[in-house]
Amino acid sequence: MIPLKAYPERARTPPRRALFTFRTSRAIDCGYKACPGLAGDAMTDIPDLQRVTTEYVAVEDRVRISGEAADGATVVLWLTQRLLNLLVPRLTGGLEQPDSTSDALMQGFAQQAAEASLSPQPAVEAAAPSASWRVDSVDILSGPDGVALTFRSDEGPAARLSLANEPLRQWLSILRRQYQAAGWIDRVWPVWMEDDMRPAARPDATPLH
Question: If DSSP codes are grouped into helix, strand and coil, which group holds residue 50?
Answer without folding.
Answer: strand
